[in-house]
């Protein structure tokens, strides 16, 4: 099969997917990637391998010390027995190691939490439904309180203390409320980061950003359909030229790997015959142009003890075209029929083409025509509903790339490190000399002494070498007339110890300046007047200078999180059921597997910086203070200590404050009601006492009235008795008078 090649050597893309999946096509792609890099690509990665290794040697203090020996007048090719300088250590001092480790620790110490939220229209409708529901609950708080007092429970496990009471609190509640699916995705991404030890990968990428000016990782699914993250060695990556620091427009990437024959046999899984494996085994760097170029860069990979086989792992993004003929069937309905891409259509049938992006992957054994595992990539990280946005699996960022040229802080400080080591050698040379300065020996004063070194008479060139190394000039001259003849004359030969030490201190300042550090950041000795505020300000300035590295780290991290979310859905859908029960339980895993994958909603990813150690320490102090003042309880403090985000901590504190305010208002109302009830009871008691007093007074009045009545009755009775007595007396007197009258009449009658 023949393919039309464009100017860059890549095969024609306008062929059918079936043709693209053949090994012949994949071999052309692999060779084109390597060829395109060699001919048109910039020296970003593979071409910079030697430079990157040099930078790493300098940063670790492993550069060749022989390059500094001429500063002390020593020829590196001269044997020690012939050298005049003795007692000097030529070891390199690693001035940059501590500073690089501090910068790496700063980047690695800035941790982030991936946040996920659904942003499509259906998710917005669900959130609007939640908002309306919460509004109804807010307006029904009095009813809910009565219901809680009667039934002792609320619907949907609501808490009256946590229920928003105004619009601001409702907005705060909705801001921190997300769909259950988004929460599960966040949890899954966090677990995959832990399983792949992303903290260590983060440190390694930070080291690459400083040393090489670029960091790179890749994501994918392993043979068990479990997401993985790998850090890529930047000196083995092949990427095309790009106008973007994240290489978003790259159509391919390759990675040079060196594997053993057994690994090759295991990876190919029977795709290569024994004869082909022997061809791969016999591959030598001198047998082809590819390995001839790579041998100088990766000499250690071609050791005879363990013969490594170089392979190029690659991915290639291409445009797929599907051609259809639109026909009208006998029922008058349109129907699409698949056609070859060369189909032109006719008057009756319309030609319809659908274009989308696919990614192909494979492994090519360099220097051979052997290719294996070439296929359309499994589990492409397509965005929902958009097949044209299919990214490569590599996540790369070069913060200081300009005009396709990488710039790294490590490369910039090499001249400074050379100067520092040069000054240090000069200081050692001065300290190793027997005199504080130079000295002149006058042979005329000591002409009786034959000057020899190592049983060898000194020639003029030997005297000069002796002077350059031992800083002693041997002369034989007559003294001037009238001058004193001195045997040893002290000389001033320019820059001395103090000046070199000052130069070293100045260069260390330049080193910190280029790296974006300062005395506070590198834990050096500060001035006596440097207070806590000044020190903190210097640390903040250092963080600001390193912001370009923090930004690169954030960009790589968020792209990794996006990929892990998509790959996790693939893993849930096609992997072994129940493998993620440990993350969010059996029920949550089942719900995710059945209903809550990324095809239901569009999600946005963002990252939140986790609190630094200092910020977390301040937060824990605040929590302890709140506990001591009884603002929060011990269980609430324990919950706050587990919070890993300042944003979430702020939300939880606000929630606790609202709950505390509601409980405080509730207690105030209860106190008011209790006081009112007590006052009511007191008033009732007083009223009852007054009533009793009135009743008693009334009874007394009644008794008094009764006594007065009885007294009056007695008076009337006595008066009546008196009247009766008087009437009786009068009647008796009348009777006596009548009797007396009768007697008188009788007497008269008798008379």
Automatic annotation (TrEMBL):
Residues 646-724 form a coiled coil. It comes from the Bacteria. Keywords: Coiled coil. This is Portal protein.
């Amino acid at each position: 099969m023949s393919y039309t090649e464009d100017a860059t050597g890549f095969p024609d893309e306008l062929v059918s997917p079936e043709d693209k999946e053949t090994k012949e096509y994949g071999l052309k792609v692999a060779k084109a990637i390597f060829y395109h890099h060699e001919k048109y690509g910039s020296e970003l990665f593979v071409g910079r391998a030697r430079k990157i290794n040099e930078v790493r040697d300098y940063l670790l203090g492993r550069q060749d010390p022989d390059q500094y020996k001429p500063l002390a007048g020593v020829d590196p090719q001269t044997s020690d027995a012939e050298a005049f300088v003795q007692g000097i250590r030529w070891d390199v001092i690693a001035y940059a190691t501590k500073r690089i480790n501090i910068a790496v620790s700063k980047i690695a110490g800035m941790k982030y939490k991936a946040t996920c939220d659904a942003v499509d229209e259906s998710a917005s409708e669900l959130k609007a439904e939640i908002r309306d529901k919460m509004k109804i609950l807010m307006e029904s708080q009095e009813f809910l309180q009565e219901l809680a007092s009667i039934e002792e429970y609320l619907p949907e496990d609501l808490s009256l203390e946590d229920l928003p009471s105004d619009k601001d609190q409702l907005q705060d509640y909705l801001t921190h409320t997300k769909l259950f699916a988004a929460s599960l995705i966040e949890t899954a991404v966090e677990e995959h980061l832990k399983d792949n030890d992303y903290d260590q990968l983060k440190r390694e990428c930070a080291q690459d950003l400083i040393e090489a000016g670029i960091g790179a990782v890749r994501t994918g699914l392993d043979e068990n359909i479990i997401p993985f993250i790998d850090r890529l060695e930047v000196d083995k990556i092949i990427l095309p030229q790009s106008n973007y620091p994240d290489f978003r427009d790259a159509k391919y990437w390759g990675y040079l790997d060196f594997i053993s024959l057994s690994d090759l046999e295991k990876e190919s899984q029977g795709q290569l015959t024994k004869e082909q494996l022997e061809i791969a085994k016999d591959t030598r760097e001198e047998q082809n142009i590819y390995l001839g170029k790579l041998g100088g860069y990766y000499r250690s990979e071609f050791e005879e003890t363990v013969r490594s086989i170089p392979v190029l792992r690659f991915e290639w993004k291409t445009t797929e075209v599907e051609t259809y003929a639109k026909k009208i069937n006998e029922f008058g309905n349109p129907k699409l029929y698949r056609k070859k891409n060369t189909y032109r259509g006719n008057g009756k049938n319309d030609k319809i083409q659908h274009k989308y992006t696919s990614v192909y992957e494979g492994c090519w054994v360099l220097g051979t025509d052997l290719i294996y595992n070439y296929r359309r990539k499994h589990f492409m990280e397509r965005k929902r509903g958009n097949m044209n946005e299919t990214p490569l699996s590599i996540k790369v960022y070069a913060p200081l790339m300009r005009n396709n040229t990488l710039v790294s802080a490590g490369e910039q400080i090499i001249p400074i490190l050379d100067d520092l080591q040069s000054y240090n050698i000069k200081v050692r040379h001065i300290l190793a000399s027997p005199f504080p300065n130079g000295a002149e020996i006058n042979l005329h004063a000591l002409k009786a002494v034959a000057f020899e070194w190592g049983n060898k008479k000194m020639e003029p060139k030997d005297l000069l070498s002796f002077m350059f190394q031992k800083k002693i000039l041997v002369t034989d001259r007559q003294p001037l007339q009238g001058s004193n003849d001195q045997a040893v004359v002290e000389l001033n030969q320019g820059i001395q110890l103090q000046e070199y030490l000052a130069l070293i201190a100045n260069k260390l300042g330049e080193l910190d300046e280029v790296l974006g550090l300062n005395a506070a950041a590198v834990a050096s000795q500060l001035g006596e007047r440097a207070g806590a505020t000044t020190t903190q300000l210097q640390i903040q300035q250092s963080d600001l200078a390193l912001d370009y590295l923090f930004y690169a780290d954030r960009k790589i991290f968020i792209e990794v999180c996006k990929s892990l979310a998509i790959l996790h859905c693939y893993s849930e859908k096609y992997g072994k059921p129940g493998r993620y029960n440990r993350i969010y339980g059996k029920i949550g895993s089942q719900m995710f597997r059945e209903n809550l994958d990324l095809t239901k909603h569009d999600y946005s990813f963002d990252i939140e910086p986790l609190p630094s150690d200092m910020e977390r320490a301040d937060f824990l102090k605040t929590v302890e203070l709140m506990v001591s003042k009884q603002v929060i309880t011990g269980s609430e403090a324990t919950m706050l200590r587990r919070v890993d985000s300042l944003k979430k901590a702020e939300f939880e504190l606000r929630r606790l404050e609202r709950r505390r305010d509601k409980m405080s208002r509730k207690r105030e109302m209860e106190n008011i009601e209790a006081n009112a009830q007590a006052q009511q009871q007191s008033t009732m008691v007083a009223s009852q006492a007054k009533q009793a007093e009135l009743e008693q007074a009334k009874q007394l009045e009644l008794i008094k009235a009764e006594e007065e009545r009885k007294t009056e009755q007695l008076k009337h009775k006595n008066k009546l008795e008196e009247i009766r007595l008087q009437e009786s007396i009068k009647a008796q007197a009348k009777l006596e008078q009548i009797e007396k009258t009768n007697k008188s009449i009788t007497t008269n009658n008798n008379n």
